[in-house]
Amino acid sequence: MQNPKLHALSTTVAKLLHRNALGPLRKILAKRHPVEIAYFFRELPPRDAKKLFMHIEDDGTRADVLVEMDMRDQVELIQSIEPDEALRIFHLMENDDLTDLMEELDEGQRDAFLELMKEEDQATVEALLTYDSNTAGGIMNPSYLALSPNLTAMEAIEFIQNSSEDYATTFYIYVLNAADQLTGVVSLRQLVTCRSDTRLKEIMTPEVVSVPLSMDQEEVATIVERYGFLAVPVVDTDNRMLGVVTVDDVIEVIREEATEDIFKMAGAGDDIEYFQEPIFAGLKPRISKLIMPLLGGLLALLLLTLKGRVFFGESIHLLFLIPALMLLCHNAATQSSTLIVRGFSMGRISSSHFGRILRREMAMGLFMGMFFGLVVFGVTFIPVFSRFAIIPASRMAMVAAGVTTLSLISATSIGAFLPLFYERLQLDPASAAGTMVLSVVNLLTVVLVLGAGWISVTLL
Fold first, then answer.
1. Nearest to 353 by CA among 261, 420, 428, 430
2. Low-confidence residues of the chain: pLDDT under 70
3. How many domains does the chain have?
């Protein structure tokens, strides 16, 4: 939800910028948090964004503001300023944030910036660029606080006090042996509350929860969430520590993954700033996801056109039930698929629960079907429905109630089955939970109504 005060302040900043009222503008910027300043850039054209960025007081604040901006805005801004100004800002950014930005630049621009960077920054960023951006290695920060197990608490505190490095986190002190292997962890609280002559190996926790370089970022986020860590160490196959993933990165991962699932389920393309994407760029993914529902609908229409009279005969009134059943089953299937996809993303279920989940959703569909079947059974006796019926109202009511129950069982089963099936194939279950589920459900609903019509004509 938009903050009205912040939105009003953003409008004021834009007006001051256009009037070239630099004094009041700089006063506002000096008093605001980097997150709030980053908000001011959202609706500014590139030229005004560059102008506002250059009026920020110092390079440190500029670096903080840049990190808080959307990635597309970051890239446009960096491309608009002078290379030497960009390099000063790069030097003050966290290495993981800088690597994310470098990945979004054109290869030529990225190589040019890497050539101009200091050797230390260049080596770190190039190393991080070798890791998949969606793994622990891709989101880790290589700046962490690590000490020898033989240091005393007093020596460790003095080291921290005299260190000029900006560590990703100082809440945890990681204990490494001579081969840089992770052997333990000491919390800052433990360090400042123990006796000054206590050695780190005496107070450290030897069983450290760590993650491998290749672990998927979503799994890393699950571990941090499960244990309530502020950071988790990243190690290689020899247990040598290479970096840490901090809780702010985990929050971003959770947001990205949840947004990705929502967009896939809706068939709306990728996560974008709504007004920043050209309308035709967003048209292609949305159209491609609507083709399957259209084909399913046309096939259902074909069945009704060619075989409707054959199947329904005197029970043609059942046709009027199709729109209501489609809406009902559409929502029931969406409920099931959403629960399954969210269960996978939260680690609450897995593909090994295939049969158990399917039985549960079928039972859920049965109970909902019985409830709504009774509602439909009663509605069919209303005079406006039964007055012009050719067949007895009781027969029509029984058939309508039965097809309602079967349709809901099918809808919940398909809503659960397709995401589970995709997960078994090691595909993204969210991809099946949107238009694919709904297309199959709508088509099957029509088939079931046709079957009900045939039964009422031939058997009843």
1. 420
2. 1-2, 258-320, 346-347, 381-394, 433-434, 453-460
3. 3
106 and 197 assigned to the same domain: no
Whether 351 and 432 map to the same domain: the answer is yes
**Is this model's pTM higher than 0.85 or not?**
no
- The amino acid at residue 282 is G
Same domain, 262 and 326: no
Domain termination site, one of 248, 266, 284: 266
Whether residue 284 lies inside any domain: the answer is yes
Q: Which domain holds residue 210?
A: 146-266
